[in-house]
Amino acid sequence: LQVVDDEGRDVTPRPLFRPDPDAAAPKQSQLSASSDDSGATASGFLSACSMHEALGADLPCPSSVSKSNSSTMESVLDEAVKPGSQQDTAASLPDVQVRQEEKKEQLTEEDLDRRVDVYLTETETLWILDMPSVVVSAESEGAGRVLERNRVYADICKNRPGNDRFVEKMMQTINGAAKNKEAQCDRVLVEDKGTVVASWDLYNFFNASEAEPASKAEGSRAPAESSISDTSKEHDQTAAAAPDRGSITPAAVSERAGLARIHKEETCHLEAILRSENFQQDLLFMERILMENIFQPKLAAYRQFPVLTEPAVTSGAGSTVVAAKEAKQEEHDKGEKDKEEQKETRTDPSVLSDLKETSEGNVPPRLERLWAYSCDLTKGHNVSSMARSRVNPDLLAVGYGAFDFKEQKRGLVCCWSLKNPMWPERIFQCEHGVTALDFSAASSSLLAVGLYDGTVAIYDVRSCSSTTVLDSGEHADKHTGPVWQLRWVEQDRGTTEDDKRERLISVSADGRITTWLTWRGLDCKDLMKINRTGSEKKRFPVKKGRKSEPLISQWAAGTCFDFHPKDPDFYLAGTEEGLIHKCSCSCSTRFLETYRGHKGPVYKVAWNPFSTDTFLSCSADWSIILWHQRSQTPLLAFSSTTTVVHDVTWSPKSASVFAAANESRVEIWDLSVSILDPVAARSAEPEAKCTSVLFAGSANCLLVGDSRGGVGVFELQGLAAPSCTKV
Fold this sequence. Notes:
single chain; four-stranded antiparallel β-sheet; elongated; cytoskeleton; WD repeat; dynein light chain binding
């Protein structure tokens, strides 16, 4: 046979082993005489097999030889199948065996030592078991699509040139998109705790620790001594002591009575000492001293004083002197550097501007929490109002009461002092929730309190009892709704002495703005009854026979007011209708101006103490509005959150800075910096709402009350100093 490729070249496989041409030709047989090619193939097969047997079983027979062997055997079988050739086949098979034996005899030692090249090639893979994996059920809806894709993939793999089932290649896995996951947990609360240990405490502790080992040693010694004593002696002693236990002499009875009387007298004496006023006063002083030691850094920051640090403890006097010298040298070097920098900034204006920008950029405005006025008595109460004493700014009065009718409970008034931020100095219990309070300027010890039931009460903070000095609870003209705001006002409207005295003004939900005369036993008269004002919408004519809807009340509920800082004859009044009325004490029948801009109840109005023609207002419609008294159109409107704004107040140091308290956070606005966003903000405590805000007088701090009974004290850091007092 001859194998030819497409281009006509002979690619017939050749045998790997050729016999020696010099060797004698073997005896021809009918098996080898068929053709030259078959003879060559048979001889190659026999020689290759004989060589394989000579080399041993370690080397496999080459694939080409095996193929030649198979083809030769097929030809032998074909000749055996032909009719009439059975005898020839029988005669040829022994010849093959004879030739194999002759070939074995022809191999010499040189042939055995000769190097033979054996080439191993890979045969086709035989698959015994093939179970393809199944991912999609054959009964599912998408089974047809999956089968079609598998068929297409199989065709692609089959038709590829040089098809292989396994191909080594590089692949890049696409990473999935990043996801942000957040976890919410309760806030970790941190508390500062401290204690003071005196020298006598240390002395008692060490004495007690020394006494315990001595008592243990005596207890261990007692059993040893008792074991040494004789049993008969113990019996005699017990028998002798038995009669003494049963008999009690009169001397023993009188002695016991005397001891009991002495113990009782000592107990009564100790109770008298604990209840004495002097001891209570001493405890108060000791408590204040301890609180000042604990809160010293925070109180110093509140007062804007430098914080004192404890000196480092050194081992000897020499090291102390060296450390002091080094500190003095550092201070001297630092002072010289500061002087040189000051000279450079004076000569170079660009350096001065750079330093100014750096200083302004490094300290952004923020609210740093110092402490909170809170105790177990105030937890769970809503802070409704706050007021500072006009004589003693360190004294803060806080009223606790709910704004909602469904959440009403007993009210509470606490007077806090900087000398003890952990417990109030005065506590006044009220029958109803406290909604407003204010200190008197003429009599600094008088505190006016407004309650949810419409009562106006006056307390004397010098007294520790909850008894009121004056009370309008049984007055015929008392308010019939909650008193939302109180204010002591000094007016000089007439020539008589009564016209120059300080008056107490209140506004209530019953629509009345009332003046209370304390020198007449809390007598009252109305400054204004706030009439309801119709809206500015176009009114359509009423059809005949159709009645207009009657009003529930003729008076509009008042919520807040504020007197002009320069002319106390004029004041502003806010209502639940969202309107702000400008009124005069000389006219109680009509309003001077009406400002429309809010869509909800107005909770606070405040005149600017420096620019007295402007004022602020906040409302339940989430907004704060800046007004000018000569314009009924708002100048600016501020809205940073979608929560109710409960309180707003101007800074006593700057005409452009004010603070606002909404339910979610407290904000500091500086109109000279931005009219769009607050310059600083602080979120409320967890599960709490900010309800009131107040600047701490001359201190650069802010007081914020919340719905959980706490009044936080925050330091204003990084706020630029006001350059002027005009907006």
